[in-house]
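Q: Protein A?
A:
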Amino acid sequence: MQTALIVGSTGIVGQNLAQRLLRNGWNVLGLSRGKQVVDGVQGLSADLRDAAAVREVLRGQDVSHVFLSAWIRHETEAENVKVNGGIVENVFDGLEGAKNLKHAALVTGTKQYLGPFESYGQTAAETPFREDTPRLPGLNFYYTQEDVLYAAAERMGFGWSVHRPHTIVGYAVGNAMNMGSTLAVYATLCRESGESFIFPGSHEQWNALTDVTDARLLAEHLEWASTRSAGRDEAFNVVNGDVFRWRWLWPQLAAYFGVKPEGPPAEIAPLEGRMGEAPEDWKAIASKYDLAESDVTRVASWWHTDGDLGRKIECVNDMSKSRRVGFVSHQDTPASFFDLFDRLKADQIIPG
């Protein structure tokens, strides 16, 4: 039996990957600071920033595959580089004696091509983004994590893969950095108040082509690359495989919730500046409909969705490399959102 160590197992990537691997017969260990939320995962708890704690919890663990999908946000990219590069270093230091380690997969993202938060989109690669695009100048914790991965693979003799999703949409209990859940909460607030469902992003995002990544497709891609020779020592973009414009998708999302769609106003209206009353409003909605979560911060992240929708440049990722080497799965993007909304309703996260 193959044994996976998922670092960041309680996040949106980790939860969906754990569920897939368990269905496919893997033994799954989950390393995180919090309580495991996927049944069947053997939990390992440590602060990933604490090298000694990580080393202690990983001592003697015989794993065949490592999946790294953890990061901690800081105010500056210098801090992000130090902390998030350190997380990867701590994991591989803790696994130094793992004799059967075959492959390590690192999940990063489209900031590979757009730059870090503090200079996000100010300089960018040409679209469609391709994996062989040179790195942008300056600090980027994705680059640091990659370099740590490459050095560990050379030192310890395992194969590696890097996975670069775009905006991730999918179900994750207690993980709010999810555009799909955030938009579901926003639409519910609009419906309850009778307000229009106003696109909170830029005119450029409203009109330009873009793409997203379904968390289930990303989980499939991670398993595929880690168990196929074609995925060894390669970096891959991972998106659904279709492209869309928000001006096309937004009315469909609005129709699902029965709200009136509106495009971006002349001056864009980010969610973070408009959701000051959301905590109390959501408590009232949760009480009215007997929802499972009354804390809006556990199901929505205004800043995260604002960042994705507020960009003023086109963001399209090329999937040709994966297709050429055998990964041909595809996910319909509207279905990514509607499947998530259906499950949020079924689990009483949003009203039915």
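Q: Protein B?
A:
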Amino acid sequence: MEPPPLQKRRRTTAEEPTTIHDMPDDLLRQILLRLDSPLWLVRAACASKPLRRAVIAGGRAFLRLAASIHPPVVVGHYYERSMRPIAFVPSSSPAPAPVDAGRFALKFLPRDVTTTAYWEVSDCHAGLLLLRDGYNYPSNIIVCDPLTRRYQGIPHPPVENLKRVGHAFALLDGDDGDISISSLRVLYHFLEAPHVCVFSTTASGGAGGWRFLSEPPDGGYKHMGHVAGRVDGSLYFGISTGNVKVLDNASWELSEVDLPIGIDTSKPPKRSAFTVVHGAGHGRTSPATTRIVHVHGEDLEVFRRRVSGDEWVLEHSIAKLSEATRGLFGYRPDKRLEWTEVRVISVGNGIAVLSARDRRTDKWLFSVDMDTEEMKVVPKEPYRGIRWTCTYTLPWRQFLRACPC
């Protein structure tokens, strides 16, 4: 008996090919977390409704997780050169795509800001720039968003305190925990008591206003130092005497950071400088690595923050930078290289650019890789006349707002 002829089997629903429409949002978000840049996240969300749904359904929690895993994407730097207006210089190796420098130029600001050398970039945070007039006192203040080309002026602190000399400006998140051109806070540090004044755009019924913070019992606001950077939204201040303080973004509490400093800061030149440097984690889904670079004279220390907790550990140190970099600049072994000043003038993802001056005031530039400790010579021309640079990074939330559901 012959077997019955083979019949063509009908494909069942269970055997239908799986598409992106069949994947749950949680799985899609796990895939999206592996993207290195907010630009790729925006492009993915624009290319597919399921991906866009997964991003928006995840809300702020998903964006905070994405930002914690990946370091900020450095687009470029705003340069402050002696006797020149502020200029934007794209990063030499932007991760997502080539950057159009004109897109981040400040030509949309008033003419005196873009054509004179009096204005300075005091801070850059979440895609916003804080500018101050270094010529007039009290300083004029402007906050701007290069992406949307919007800006607003910030009024001076209260009239009765205009004679108090300001020391540092910084941008902070708004009262709602987010930051935008219409929701932000500005910190102003005075050298005289009361020492800290904060402007909020949402104060006084939305008209904005200043208020002074109550001095802590230990008088901690008096010696806040310079802004070293941000870690988890809180401001870190480097003290020239050799320690770091952190100002909590929500509670305004000021506390000292426990850094295992090994340099004898009592020895000349008796001045320390600290800079926060963010870098990538060890894997695609590993948390981003945060470090603090401490420069004291010619000595350098790098502290790394542990993934769990707030503990900082000494990762590596260089006892004498002039000796460690001698071969970089072609010095003969028998020639002694002595530096009188070393400072960090620029940072990128896991990279710090240092400027050194010798006793003849010659300037030398080199970079230090935080992961490998590798040092390289940096061309002088891009940094000629530079007083300092402000790193501009792609803000995750602002880019995603341009992607409606």
